[in-house]
Structures are given as C-alpha cells and as structure tokens.
Design a protein that fits this description.
About 35% of the residues lie in helices and about 20% in strands. By secondary structure, it is of the alpha/beta class.
Length: about 350
C-alpha cells in the first residue's frame, strides 16, 4: 500500500495528487515548497514549526491550508501523504524518526543525520515499518548528473582515476551562527562538504581510505576542510569545503580516456562538458520540464505510486556510506558533536 491517497481519503493507485507536509519553515523549506506548488500532481497541504507564528506566516506565504505549531499535529494529519523534513540537520533524526513512527513516508534533507549511527537508526526504522525514506540529495536526481553517470558507466572517459570537487562560501559567520555551533552539527562539512563527498561516491562508491585536514573554529567545528579519498582501484578524490572562502564550486571527473567538467554549482548543473582525446569538446544538456528541487520531489512521487520504499536514484545504503565517510573525516580532523558521545 502506498502513501498516495485520493481526495476522499481512500487509498490511491497513483492517479491522484500527492499531498506533502513540510516540517520547518526556513530557506530550504521555502524553496522546496515553491517548487512543489508549481508541479502538476503535487501540493503542500500542511506545514509545521515549533513556532505557531512561524508556521502560520509560512502557510500564508504559500497558501497552505493548515499550519501547526508543533510536529505532532502535522504527523497526525490524515491528509498528509508524505513528509519533507527541512529542519537543521541536528533535528533530522528526531523529526524523520517521529514521522516514520507515525506511519508517514519521509524525504529528509541532507546531511541525512549528524552521524552514521543516527542514519542507521532511521534506515532500520523505515525498513522495519516498510515505509519510504529518502535523503534529499537533489544532485542525484538531476537529469544532467544522471546523464553524466550514464556516460561514465558506458566508458566515455575510460576508467575513472580522479574526482575533484569543491563547495565553499566566503562568510564570515559569527560565533552565534548555527554553522559555528557543534550541537547543531555546525561546520563546513555537513552543510557543504556533503555535496563533494556524495558526488565522489556517486561515481566511485564508498572509499577504502580517508585522509583529511581542517581549520577548526574556537567552538571546535570545521571552517575549511580538505579531503583525500582513496580506492583500491587506484582512483582518488580530492575534495574541499569551506565557510571562510568562496570557492569555484566546480567538479571534474577524469578517466583514462577523457574527462567531464561540471560548472560552478556542480550539484545542480544545467550542463557539462565532455573532453575526449582527438575530439572537440562536447557540451551536454538535458531537456526537462522540471526544475530545481522538483526532480527529487518527482522521484519521491514516482516511488510512492510504484509502491517502492527506497529510491534507486538515492539508495539508503548510499546515504549510509556517505555518512560513514563524513564520520571518518570528522574523526581525522578532530570534530565531535555532543550527539557523538552516545555512539
């Protein structure tokens, strides 16, 4: 039985409208809500915040029928087919866990959780309940990125040898900012570094070796981090993230017979360039009626209508592998969050 429902509340087979509930009212929630509201066959019917005023203001902004001043109200709403968790990642484990316990399918923002232990707990809960769960790694759902991975799999650049990717913001972020708070999972790694790491692992899988170095804040979170991942195949990935420097935020995959270059904003690209020896550069674009975060929302809807509890585009085992790598990086550079003490 899927989470899709008809307007009369009966179980649907995929022909009705998928009704979303949004947990949180920040910037990423606003972007997602705007994108979903512009899609056919999907709508946001409820929003929840720990502040009733914030929920009502968000609901008024996006013409959402119901606003809740706590998570429980939204999770008990029978008209909500699927929950989008857009809280800070420090609350992902709690919010997504409560949604799953309430029987709701979940799309949870990245970084998936604060550490691999929390991620395992969510995945175990979803699988035990037979409920859909997916990390909101919209990069994996991008038709441009999917086309890139198809070319790599087909051998367009030969055997992959190196991956390079970076994501950095100039800042500065003051000591009071959430990015400086260990309790909130602060630092560059979970907010920005998750993209380069996820990009490398999309192509090469979980690394066999992890090296890293970082500049830490007085609070003990990473401000500028470099990572070197290694695979037994001989492939390497050189990755970086920063909240002190605005990096190009580009990505390159190089193989034995060519390379693929993604432009600034590699995590949401509109094109890439394929370079092969003896040929002119080839620019690749993919036409799609969807934009932005609609791609991941459409994948969730597709899975729910098909009765799938995991997405083949964003598999849970892949999300777990990324969290293990992020944990390893933090261990190498000496960043610990209070929640790690329970691990």
């Amino acid at each position: 039985m899927t989470a899709e429902h008809d307007r009369d509340g009966g179980s649907g087979t995929g022909s009705g409208t998928t009704r979303w509930g949004v947990l949180a009212t920040g910037g990423i929630a606003a972007t997602f809500t705007g994108d979903v509201q512009a899609m056919a066959g999907a709508e946001v019917v409820a929003v929840a915040s720990r502040s009733e005023a914030s929920a009502k203001a968000f609901a008024d902004r996006f013409d959402i029928p119901r606003a809740y001043g706590d998570w429980a109200g939204l999770l008990a709403d029978p008209d909500v087919d699927v929950v989008y968790v857009a809280t800070p990642h420090s609350a992902h484990r709690a919010a997504a866990g409560l949604a799953l316990e309430a029987g709701k399918p979940v799309l949870c923002e990245k970084a998936f959780t604060l550490n691999a232990r929390e991620a395992r707990e969510l995945v175990t809960l979803a699988r035990e309940r037979g409920l859909f769960l997916m990390e909101a790694m919209w990069m994996y759902c991008s038709p441009v990125v999917r086309r890139m991975t198809e070319l790599i799999t087909d051998g367009a650049i030969g055997e992959v040898r190196t991956v390079q990717a970076d994501f950095g913001l100039q800042g500065p972020f003051g000591p009071e900012h959430r990015l400086r708070d260990p309790a909130l999972g602060g630092g560059a790694l979970l907010d920005l570094g998750v993209y380069p790491v996820s990009f490398a692992q999309l192509i090469l899988g979980e690394p066999d070796r992890v090296q890293a170095d970082a500049l830490l804040s007085p609070e003990g979170v990473d401000l500028n981090t470099g990572m070197l991942l290694g695979w037994d195949s001989g492939a390497t990935a050189l990755l970086s993230c920063s909240v002190t420097a605005g990096t190009p935020s580009t990505a390159t995959v190089t193989g034995t017979a060519g390379r693929i270059e993604l432009p600034s904003g590699f995590f949401a690209p509109d094109s890439f360039v394929l370079h092969r020896d003896g040929r002119d550069p080839e620019q690749h674009t993919v036409e799609s009626p969807l934009t932005g975060m609609q791609h991941e929302a459409a994948e969730v809807v597709r899975c729910l209508r098909a009765g799938e509890t995991e997405s083949p585009l964003v598999p849970l085992d892949g999300s777990l592998a990324v969290m293990r790598t992020l944990d390893a990086v933090r261990e190498r550079v000496g960043v610990r969050y209070p929640v790690d003490e329970a691990s």
